[in-house]
Design brief:
Strand order of the largest sheet: 5-9-10-11-7
Distance between the termini: 49 Å
Oligomer: single chain
Length: 337
């Protein structure tokens, strides 16, 4: 029996453990032509992870915790029976996968900070010198766990603008707005222009909320191979517990993940235009911190398409290319009651 990195969905395992191994068909998720290893070779990594959990008759199965906390075993074929079989093979223990656990108490672990309190203070009390305590040194260290390689995202991105005149918008005018006219964005404060890009043409057009019949000018932008990007799409999938040295670090990381998840949600969630200046303040504040730590931008999910977005702190880091016209033929609306 052999397993592959796809069974787990962990980026560190894929890059470091399953690199340069024999290839074939996975015995568990049935993926073909992938790197394979005997499950028992992963034992030391999973034993360290299990040490961050404690037996509890009222708890849950380990595969459930691992799936919810770290995004493991999310492959469509890795249902509970297959995930338990694989974990039992890794640990050479068929009983432990049927026992129930709870996470080790995080009470002794200092919290990174209270996101909701920080959010409320930035929006309604203190904009620049908040009193809510955030461990920024620790947050800065966490950002490096969310750093992704440029080859994990597109090198060609798109930016769209509505064409309001008879002639198309030229490439020189498709970049970030001038400082004096740059308004509040999800990541940027007013007057500090960032370049917002979509991973596909449809994503870029969707992000400008067009009406049916309007014409959008869409420019291609190419980004360099040395970008330092923080991935906020889904932190628990980007962070790897196997990269941490012991159970204490794993417990601490688990307690920090909700804070990082909230930042990703702030960047993604729709905001009404009349509320943007206030509602964007928390995400702007933390994106400025990310920029201060030496990163070039953040990647986050699109709320209006299946694609992803890149907020580039320094617009000159992207090179504009061709500009095409795209007519909006239909706008879909979903209503929640």
């Amino acid at each position: 029996m052999r397993c592959c990195a796809g069974c787990f969905g962990d980026q560190w395992l894929r890059k470091e453990i399953f690199r340069s191994v024999e290839t074939g068909a996975c015995s568990y998720c049935a993926t073909n032509n992938v790197g394979l290893l005997p499950p028992e070779q992963l034992a030391v990594h999973f034993e360290r992870l299990i040490n961050a959990y404690r037996p509890d008759p009222a708890g849950r199965l380990l595969v459930h915790w691992f799936r919810d906390d770290w995004g493991l075993f999310e492959h469509e074929r890795m249902d509970d029976p297959r995930a338990k079989d694989l974990l039992a093979e890794i640990l050479d223990d068929g009983d432990i996968v049927r026992q129930t656990f709870r996470p080790a108490a995080a009470g002794a672990v200092d919290a990174l900070g209270d996101w909701q309190k920080l959010r409320d203070e930035l929006m309604y009390q203190n904009r620049f010198f908040p009193e809510v305590k955030i461990d920024f040194d620790r947050l800065g260290d966490l950002l490096f766990h969310l750093k992704i390689s440029p080859d994990e995202v597109p090198s060609v991105w798109y930016r769209a603008r509505i064409q309001v005149r008879d002639t198309p918008i030229g490439a020189a005018d498709m970049g970030a707005p001038p400082r004096r006219t740059a308004s509040h964005g999800r990541a940027n404060p007013a007057g500090i222009p960032y370049l917002y890009l979509g991973s596909t043409l449809a994503t870029a057009v969707s992000e400008i909320r067009p009406h049916t019949g309007e014409v959008a000018c869409v420019a291609e932008f190419t980004t360099p191979s040395d970008l330092k990007i923080v991935d906020l799409r889904r932190p628990k999938k980007t962070v790897s517990p196997f990269l941490l040295s012991d159970a204490t670090e794993i417990v601490r990381m688990r307690s920090d993940l909700p804070f990082l998840e909230r930042l990703g949600e702030e960047l993604t969630r729709p905001v009404l235009p009349q509320a943007a200046a206030i509602d964007y303040t928390p995400s702007q504040y933390l994106c400025e911190f990310i920029k201060k730590r030496g990163f070039d931008g953040v990647v986050y999910r699109s709320s209006v398409s299946d694609g992803i977005n890149l907020a580039l702190f320094n617009p000159s880091r992207a090179q504009v290319g061709n500009v095409i016209q795209a007519r909006v033929t239909r706008v879909s609306v979903d209503v929640a009651l």
